[in-house]
Request: fold
Amino acid sequence: MKKVLIINSFLHEKNKQGLIKMLGHLQIEYKFGSVTDIPNYDIIYSPSQPLDASLYPTKKFIFGPHFSVFPNHQQLQTLHNDKYNNSIYIQPSEWAAQTWINMGVEHFIPLKRFPFPVNTDRFKPLAAKETEASTIEEKTNILIYYKHRIPSELNLLKEFIAQKNISNYKVFNYKQRYNEEDYLTYLKQCKYGIILDAHESQGFAIEEALSCDVPLLVWSAQTMNQELNSNYQAIPCTSIPYWNQQCGEYFHHHHELEKTFETFQTKLEAKEYSPREYILSNLSVEKCAERLMELINNL
Reply:
């Protein structure tokens, strides 16, 4: 079995924990280490530190997804993948990967789509014996998740739900660094959530809500310049890179809110959503580990 070295550079904590779970599930030997450890390992994963892959022609390298928001071609040249073609770069979702491809990344290195898993053991609904409010009809909490969008849009959402006589909601503001345990506790008693978010390459907080079986109504971004105080170009993006009809409803413009909300409420009452099922089928440790094994086998 191949051994994996994880270079001790920046790795998003959710990605890190997901990676550890995947490697454990696959029973792959791994170590967090440095460049000096490379000779003892078959596969080197460097999430944010460029390395010269040509110095190790018998090794296989996985880079990313933390080099930069947009590709730095000068940085990518330092990988020297063109000499032995022994490395790949990963992006967590289709739109993020396509953005990099459109900017010429594959001139330097092949790019693969690879999401990290959601912790479905931690983010799960309460069992019936743990709560009296075990069904969606009995739950009363409404989540508003707000991240990197202009405040006036949040005010529009609050005005809308006030018109619907909804008062039992709580805003989780990403910028204010809410406590994750509070988020999880609230999700377990949530009837549904409303998401106002900018671009997400993966979107763990949204996926964690879905994993708790909370259907979502999402005001999704369409371009990267919708982020608050953004200097980004109007590059196509989404707030929900992992999504289907099991998860809820989404819209892009304020004038679509009323109609989308009505559809959402009708389907909620009809119990047409199954968000946790979607997460288990697409972003569980087991499913992502399958992708990781395929990635490793094809290096």
Observations:
- The chain is about 30% helix and 15% strand.
- The chain has a mean pLDDT of 95.
